Amino acid sequence: MDYKKLIIRGISYSQTQMGAYALILEQEETGIKLPVVIGNYEAQSISLGLEKDIQPPRPLTHDLFSKFITTVGYYLDSIIIYQIIDGVFFSNLILKNNQDEQLVLDARTSDAVAMAVRFDAPIYTTEQVLTEAGIMLELSDNERTEESIEEESPVIKGYEVYTLEELQELLEKAVNDEDFDTALELQQEIKKRKKNID
Questions:
Q1: 46-70 confidence digits (pLDDT tens)
Q2: Residue in 66, 70, 51, 67 with CA at minimum distance from that of residue 116
Q3: How many whole angstroms separate alpha carbon 80 and alpha carbon 22?
Q4: In 3D, which of 36, 29, 30, 10 has the Cα closest to residue 152?
Q5: Angle CA(88)–CA(111)–CA(89) in degrees, nearest 5?
Q6: Which CB contacts under 8 angstroms, 24+ apart, belong to 131-139?
Q7: N or C: which end of the chain has fewer CB within 10 A?
Q8: What is the pLDDT of residues 67-122, one digit of tens each?
C-alpha cells in the first residue's frame, strides 16, 4: 500500500472539546493537516518525548513500554494510522527486530505517536484517511508548534524575575516533582532567554 508520511506540526488546546488537545499531523508535500483529538496525559507525553532534554525522575508509561520494547530486542520501525471510523483513528505500531521479524500491535493514535517520538520513528497514514479526515488550514497564532514555541516570546508571569540559573533549578525541581506543565513552561522561558543571548 502507498502510505503517506506525516510530521508532527503541533499540539494545541482543542477548540471543540473541553480539557482535550488537538495533535496536528501534516503531510509535508500537500500541506494537508490531520487533526487528532487527544487527552491531557497523551499531550504531555508527546511533548516530553519531543523535548529530549527533559527527563522525568521516574519513567512515564510510554517510557516504560519503550524500554520494554528495546529490552526484548525490538525497535519501533514506524506507526501507521490506517483507518478512521466515526471520528476515531485506528493505528498500528510496526515493531521489528534484528532478524527482520515484524510484530504489529494495535494502538490508540495518541499512544502510537507518543511512542514514535521516543524512537524517532516515522508516522504514516493512508490516502483514504487523508481524504476522509484531512483538512487544509493555516495554523493560527494559538497553535503550539515546535517551531512557533521556539520563535514566539511568551510572557510567562512571574518567571521574568528569575535568573537563568534560578530557572534551571526550578526546571529540575518541577521535573523531580513530576509537574510537567510547569517544566515545559520553564523550558520555553529558558530557550527564549538563551536565544536572546545568542
A1: 888 888 777 778 888 999 999 999 9
A2: 66
A3: 18
A4: 10
A5: 15
A6: 132/84, 133/34, 133/35, 133/84, 133/89, 134/27, 134/32, 134/33, 134/34, 135/32, 135/33, 135/34, 135/35, 136/31, 136/32, 136/33, 137/33, 139/9, 139/10, 139/24, 139/33
A7: C
A8: 999 999 999 999 999 999 988 999 999 999 999 899 999 999 999 999 999 999 99
Long-range contacts from 82-90, C-beta under 8 angstroms, 24+ separation: 82/125, 82/126, 82/129, 83/126, 83/128, 83/129, 84/129, 84/132, 84/133, 89/36, 89/129, 89/133
149-158 long-range contacts, CB within 8 A, separation 24+: 149/188, 149/191, 150/191, 150/195, 153/192, 154/188, 154/189, 154/192, 156/185, 156/186, 156/188, 156/189
- As a whole number of angstroms, the distance between CA 136 and CA 26 comes to 10
Which amino acid does the sequence have at 174? A
